[in-house]
Write a structure and sequence with these properties.
Length: 216
């Protein structure tokens, strides 16, 4: 997947959202994807942060609009508002934190209820570099997700393993549906011009949200 930073007219604009419990690595994954290196000084997300990245993918010019949300329980209702027109949800859990895995069902439900009806979901098992601390193994995770109609990938936002592949897999899935006529190509055109065309991040903070981390 080539990345491009110059401005151009995009053929497609896809809106993705990152959800999952706090501390699972959502912001780290996004930062790695945008900057192509790990950021060791990630600040806890408060509210919602918007990032945009232009990519060339299989001869197609795509703009990804990616909304990164805070995982705190009390923030959830605000996060729901940002699902509008979302075609891809990246639902992240931390393989060293059982709680984050148990919350997946709720995040998947939120995504289905609030995103587009044809929204695709990829579940991301993050922090696989922490082999000794891993609690949720791959076979168990995949067996629990069997009937949920979701994609699954294992990543490390520290080493970068499978980070690009995560976004690529979701994009592939969307194009498969476009090719089959299951979703209309036109849906992804209209908002492509006059919007943010360079990589950038905007923070939409909610000062009322409190910091809250996984208790594992
Ligand atoms: N070892 C390791 N640490 C990670 C990974 N992803 C995130 N972290 C760390 O986990 C903490 C929470 O990450 P963050 O991206 O803020 O999680 P978020 O709350 O889901 O956005 C930070 O200290 C990150 O450096 C990973 O893949 N491996
Ligand atoms: Mg975050």
């Amino acid at each position: 997947m080539n990345t491009s930073y110059q401005e151009y007219d995009h053929e497609y604009t896809f809106k993705f959202i990152l959800v999952g419990n706090s501390n699972s690595g959502k912001t780290s994954l996004l930062q790695y994807f945008i900057k192509q290196h790990a950021n060791t000084k990630i600040q806890q997300t408060v509210g919602v942060e918007f990032s945009s990245k232009s990519i060339d993918y299989k001869d197609k010019k795509i703009k990804l609009q990616i909304w990164d949300t805070a995982g705190q329980e009390r923030f959830r209702s605000i996060a729901r508002a940002y699902f509008k027109n979302t075609i891809g949800a990246i639902v992240v859990y931390d393989v060293t934190c059982q709680d984050s895995f148990h919350s997946l069902g709720d995040w998947i439900k939120d995504s289905r209820e609030n995103g587009k009806s044809d929204l695709d979901i990829i579940v991301v098992a993050n922090k696989i570099d922490l082999k000794d601390q891993r609690i949720v193994d791959k076979d168990y995770a995949q067996s629990q997700l069997l009937n949920k109609d979701v994609l699954y990938i294992e990543t490390s936002a520290k080493t970068g393993e499978n980070v690009d592949l995560c976004f690529q897999t979701l994009i592939d899935q969307i194009f498969t549906k476009i090719d089959k006529g299951q979703i209309q190509k036109d849906e992804f055109y209209p908002q492509s011009k006059n919007l943010l065309t360079k990589n950038l991040t905007i923070k939409i903070n909610n000062p009322e949200t409190q910091n809250q981390k996984c208790n594992c």
